[in-house]
Task: structure prediction
Amino acid sequence: MSPDPTVSPAAPGVVPPAPHLAEPSMDHVTAASFEDWMKAVARGFQEEHHPETLALDREVFEDDRSFGFRVGDRWVSTCGALTRELGVPGGFSVPTAAVTVVTVHPPYRRRGLLSAMMRHQLEDVARRGEPLAALWASESLIYGRFGYGPAVSRLQLRGRTRSLDFLPGVRTGGSVDELTREQFLTVVRPLHERLRRDRPGTMARPADHSWEFALFDQPFARDGATELRHVVHWSEAGEVDGFATYRFKEDQTATEPDSEVRINELWAEDPVAHATLWRYLLDLDLARRFRARNAPSDELLRLLVHDARAVGTEVLDALYVRVVDVAAALRARSYAAPLDVVIEVADDLLPANAGRWRVRTDGPAESTTVERTDDPADVALGVLELGTVYLGGVRLADLHRVGRVTEHTPGAVAAAGTAFSWHRAPWCPDFF
Ligand SMILES: CC(=O)SCCNC(=O)CCNC(=O)[C@H](O)C(C)(C)COP(=O)(O)OP(=O)(O)OC[C@H]1O[C@@H](n2cnc3c(N)ncnc32)[C@H](O)[C@@H]1OP(=O)(O)O
Result:
């Protein structure tokens, strides 16, 4: 799949072939074709192309991981992966292909281009030795057939800010300040790196452009709200131990203040920082409503307030995880309990994963061995189900209860389920 040097831009008036007669061919992006590829991405998502983000896009996307199908010089589908690290139980970061910009131009849909791109990409991820791939799905039905399981959920929280008094015992303290973007990055980058160790599902943000993404603030991304505001919490001892970002959305039609605080992400090292940051955001003058679109599924706000029902809560799917290398992925995480089990995995797309694996661990990742075995299976499941439980956010026993996991040895699901669980729910505040 080397770039075709004979492809040159068609003259403006030259009409492409009818889609049913065209034969798209797969190709990688080059510096010369990148802008057209980004235009195809925007078109595939039914969005506008934003040339003002081209320089950032160029930094973020890697040519050898960005590809698609073309007809002549015209991209009719796109697909990409970013080289990232995903936090897993035990505080480790696992090399992960962050899959993104998957589109097929409407005239070329439902003729197998997505399937071909997914196959090509998974083989490439396996070749690179990355144990995992992960993605945010625009529609939840697309990716199951390729082995991606909904491993992380999110909460969408909303409510009236004036109904959210805290219970008397809730401790707040220290102070909150709003910083410029540059000041914020100075103090928050090391704090984020520390805090994410305790939160499976989060992604490392080592490069400047991954923070650019996290703090993305082009006017077209604001949905009529203010620029992004950067908030930190200072502990009593004068250390920064929490941070949040938010926007303020004014309701210009209301005769009384009724604006909304839109919280992007909120991180805290301890309960005081957590409660104080929430209190700050809920007490902003002129606001009467709040919305947090991507709160962790174990967000504690409901336990802090008098009126738990006032925190409107919707559970939504977030990150989908695909196990690309079963042995490496299972060795990379820690377990909540010792385990010795034979797991049989079905994987039609990556046959190297299929078969029986003995997983032995005392708990910590360093103590874990995962080896192929001919011993009979204790538990059997598909690679989608393995990805679903991998970060500890979905219980193996629940998948068994609904018939998606088979137990061959009585008690094996309970034992494996306990070991695969984790004390902290996975959360993914990283959109890509
Ligand atoms: C990580 C991300 O980037 S998420 C973004 C995904 N992209 C979008 O939402 C943009 C708009 N949609 C599209 O561009 C396209 O419709 C795509 C990429 C979702 C699908 O591309 P296609 O080339 O039409 O898919 P393809 O023909 O390979 O279909 C493979 C199978 O998936 C099914 N499928 C494809 N899209 C969907 C969908 N949206 N919902 C349910 N099933 C789907 C097909 O019916 C087909 O099923 P089959 O194998 O049983 O026949």
About this structure: The pocket of acetyl coenzyme *A is lined by residues 44-45, 99-104, 109-115, 135-139, 141-142, 145 (CB under 6 Å). The two ends are 25 Å apart (CA to CA).
